[in-house]
Amino acid sequence: MVYPVYQLGLISFLEYTQAQVSGGEPTTFQGFGNYAELFGDGEFWRVLLATVVFAAACVVSTLAVGCALAVLLTRVRALPRLALMMAALGAWATPAVTGSTVWLLLFDPDFGPVNRMLGLGDHSWTYGRFSAFALVLLEVVWCSFPFVMVTVYAGIRAVPAEVLEAAALDGASQWRIWRSVLAPMLRPILVVVTIQSVIWDFKVFTQIYVMTNGGGIAGQNLVLNVYAYQKAFASSQYSLGSAIGVVMLLILLAVTLVYLRLLRRQGEEL
């Protein structure tokens, strides 16, 4: 992993376009010039804000669905539990391109069954900015919640049954049991799935690229990963694309370190 990150950082400090790749012009050192150009671009800040909001919505939704289904797995019999597990793992194992294509077919304005069931006629879900983001969010949650569900379910099964029985005998509701008993005991597992979800959802590429045809109309559904791809490969501005990659790496490292530090402080206080 060190060498690709090194190359990414190195290119972000160079003037590296198609001319330098083809050997037509020499590569020159730009220092922080690429970053200054990037931070001075209003579109970058718009895409960054959209990425943060979209990733946060995906993480919260994935954790909510995954944890709810993990609790449900502990309440149903063996056969329904096996069926739910197999269905969830099937969604998890589906390649992102395949899953995105299937969701597009389901919500297709002409042939999709969803519009017919809802009576929406030829409504296009990918035309509007927010409806397109919502459609992608559903697909991201669909392919991501099985990891949370299986991991949290394994953690719940490791909790002593006597603890849950005592809470139930004290009159605690299912929500209170989760909030006051299970969640604190599952904190290390929840940390892992939260950080993994943040990393995965912040750098979503395939779903956005496939379902919005490269970022939506006039780039209205761009996220940082797709934005970096467009800069690097569509515009041949490899140095700017690398700078965006470095910014994404630093943001994810900062989020992870802050989250772990806050969690450690809470653990010390407890």
From TrEMBL:
Localization annotation: Cell membrane
Coiled-coil stretches noted in the UniProt entry, renumbered to this chain: none
Keywords: Cell membrane, Membrane, Transmembrane, Transmembrane helix, Transport
Keyword Transmembrane: yes
Pfam families noted in UniProt: BPD_transp_1
Keyword Nuclease tagged: no
UniProt topology in membrane: Multi-pass membrane protein
UniProt cross-references to SUPFAM superfamilies, sorted A to Z: MetI-like
Ranges annotated as spanning the membrane: 47-72, 84-107, 127-156, 177-199, 238-260
Domain ABC transmembrane type-1, residue spans: 48-259
Protein family membership: Belongs to the binding-protein-dependent transport system permease family.
Full protein name: Sugar ABC transporter permease
